[in-house]
Amino acid sequence: MRISNCAFLINSAPARGGNWTKGVNVLAPFVAMLCLTLVPFQAYAATKADLDHKKWSAWAELGGYYDSDSTNELEIELFLPIWQSAFALAFVDLEGELFQDGMQDGALALGFRRMLSGGWNLGIWGGPEVKHTEAGNTFWRFSGGLEALHPDYDLRFNGYMPYTNPQSSPSLAQVVLQGDQIFMTGSEEVALWGFDGEVGVRVPLEMAGLNPNDVELRLYGGGFYFDDDWVLEEIAGPKARVELRLYEVIPSMVGSRLTAEYGYSYDNVRGDRHQVGARFRIPFGSGGHRSLVAAAPGSKSLALQPSRPLNRQERRMLDGLERENIFTTRSGPELVADEHTDVVFEKVAYVGDNGDLSGTSVAQRANTLVIVNGEVETERLHNTIHWSQTVQGGGSTIPVYGVRTGTVAYFTAPGERPTVISTDTNDVIKLLGDRTHIAGLEIDGHGLGGHGINVGSDKWNIALDQNFIHDVAYDGIYLQNNNEHVWIFNDVITNVGGDGIYLYDWNMNVRIMDVEIRDVGDDGIVIAYGNTDITVSGTTIDNVGNDGILIRLDNEVDITNVQITDVGHNGILLYEDNHVDIANVQMTGVGNDGIYLDENNVVEMSNTTFEGTFGDNVITIDSDNELSGDGNVNNATSIDGLFCNAIGTITGRFGFAGGVICPN
Fold first, then answer.
1. Per DSSP, what are the bridge partners of residue 392?
2. Percent of the chain beyond pLDDT 90?
3. Rg of the chain, C-alpha, whole Å
């Protein structure tokens, strides 16, 4: 009977896919190991002294539950007596839960119960619990409780104390905007301390003619409270549940039990919650009071057999433990900072239709997020932006991080993209200082404004992204001198009279990424004098009047994954003393030369393709240039020139498909 019950337990787990199957596969060997441990444990040689002391046997329960949050749960519980006397029991309770969304719980407890006169059993228990969450974190806590169990009543009180620190949970993080404040919640999962309690009563079904030894209906009510310093609010509220217990549901399994259960709880964090499920208990042994009888008629051998089943008070000594499964929640609010500039947002300001962007920015000063909606016009020379600010247009999204945890999440400003309009010949937007981020604006020069965005000189940590800059008289974006760590990305620059982007001199660590530059009167990008650590990547330059990319003197530039089409003069023009890496560039339709190298440049070019019609040479190389790189492809047609026009002393070669080199 004992071994067959083990086999029944292992094979009765439902066959389901996904996490259910994974959990059953994990639990089945564990259950089998416990079964093999229990069989010899219970197969001891009985003696006369054991008759009144070995009346409580181990059992296992398999259960399944459905929650109102559409979460299915598989549960297994093992109850193992480790010592007992006529009126006392020490036991181990082992419980595991597997949830449909991948969460897993496990608990181990050591308990002790003592029978008293008057029908009450007093108990105490404690042990560790572990939870693996949907976010991939693992938490531990100690739980323990006191209980008083009576055939007709229940009293329980439990406490819980975690000993795992908060853990990062980027998937749960949310950025919240409330009036003039912005903060992040849920950047971490936090294990909660708390307590819960309940009282229960048995409904006297014998009044309806039902035997309480066969069926019980129990009603429970109680409450819970869980909290931590790092959470937004406590999880606290009432709870209630109903249990219908059917005993000896399989007559050949003495001690078998089927329990149907419904539970309800409410709290301000999770709202109303309902749970319905059932559990089936499988005993490992007959239990009850036992006596020695002849093993067979006329035999002198003795065998241990039950003389009577457990009474109702004794049966309650075998009840499983009741724990509250509230374990973790999302962390509470923390300040956020701009991921690009590290500016901490201490406040939020708003600029709407016909608002004063300059006045608001200057008045709010540093550490402000300025959210812009509607149409804004320049009123005093420029829209000047204060240092250590982020100006974000409605509908745009920027990355921010929690100041305490470092967790990164994304914030989308309410509203739609605003338009900032120039009413004079000055710059549409001008930056006043370091750590400034301009995102998600339409910058309209109306054909009058000077530069679209004028970064100026001596700035550090600047980010310009998701802006649509058009119809300005001069450059779309202008950097003058000695700026460092500037990110220009995901911008569109079109219909400008000057250059798309202009870097004057001694700028350092500038990234131009995923920018679209088209319909420009002069050059697409100009990198003038002494600029270092400059990257142009993922950028499209189309229909410009002069050169696609002009690099003047003593610059260090990487050009990668760039498309240059329909330029009036040269695709890429280098004057003197530049170090430039060109890779994965596609160049189509050039008025003069595709690549023009003047003097004393060091250039590596690889995997670059030339297509369409070129007015002069595909490549022109003047004296004292150092060349390297291969994997290039030439499918271009040169109308008035050569594929490779080399002049003067040249070191190295550019390699092309088919074994072609330049110069040859």
1. 371, 439
2. 76
3. 38
Residue 607 lies in a domain: no
Distance between CA 500 and CA 522 in Å, rounded? 8
- Which has more pLDDT, 251 or 258? 258
Task: Dig out the tokens for 249 from the structure.
Answer: 């549901």
SS3 419: strand
Q: Tell me the percentage of the chain whose pLDDT exceeds 70.
A: 87
Give residue for tokens 């509250």: 324
Report the distance separating Cα 661 and Cα 549, nearest Å.
Answer: 24
Six-digit token string for 136 = 């991939």
Structure-token pair, residue 61? 């329960």
What residue ranges in 309-387 does DSSP mark as E strands? 328-330, 334-338, 347-351, 368-372, 375-377, 383-385
659 located within any domain: no
Are both 180 and 59 inside the same structural domain? yes
Q: At a CB cut-off of 8 Å and minimum separation 6, what does 582 contact?
A: 559, 560, 572, 595, 603, 604, 605, 606, 608, 629
Both 249 and 366 in a single domain?
A: no
Task: Please indicate, yes or no, if residue 587 is contained in any of the structural domains.
Answer: no
Strand pairing report for 257-267 and 271-284: antiparallel
Q: What is the pLDDT of residue 636?
A: 94
Q: Using the 3D structure, point to which of 478, 497, 516 is the last residue of a domain.
A: 497
**Structural domain for 383, as ranges:** 336-497
How many domains does the chain divide into? Answer: 2
Q: Lowest mean pLDDT: which of 103-107, 129-133, 336-340, 533-537?
A: 103-107
- The pair of structure tokens assigned to 523 is 């050059």
What CATH number should be reported for the domain holding residue 104?
A: 2.40.160.160
Distance (Å) of CA 400 to CA 187, 390, 411, 611? 11, 11, 7, 42
Question: 77 and 97 share a domain?
Answer: yes
Cis peptide before 663 (omega within 30 of 0): yes
Distance, CA of 420 to chain centre: 35
What pairs with residue 501 in β-bridges?
477, 525
Q: Measure the CA–CA gap between 2 and 42, rounded to whole angstroms.
A: 9
CA–CA distances in Å: residue 652 to residues 2, 29, 222, 445, 629: 84, 68, 84, 46, 9
Q: CA geometry: angle at 462 spanning 459 and 466, to 5°?
A: 145
**383-387, 396-400, 562-566: segment of lowest average pLDDT:** 383-387
Inform me whether the pLDDT recorded for 42 exceeds 80. Answer: no
The answer to whether the pTM exceeds 0.90 is: no
Q: Which of 497, 526, 560 is the last residue of a domain?
A: 497
Mean pLDDT calculated for residue range 567-571: 97
Question: 377 pLDDT exceeds 80?
Answer: no
The phi, psi pair for 562, rounded to 5°, reads -115, 140
Q: How far apart are CA 456 and CA 444, in angstroms?
A: 19
Burial class (CB in 10 A: 0-12, 13-18, 19+), 380: exposed
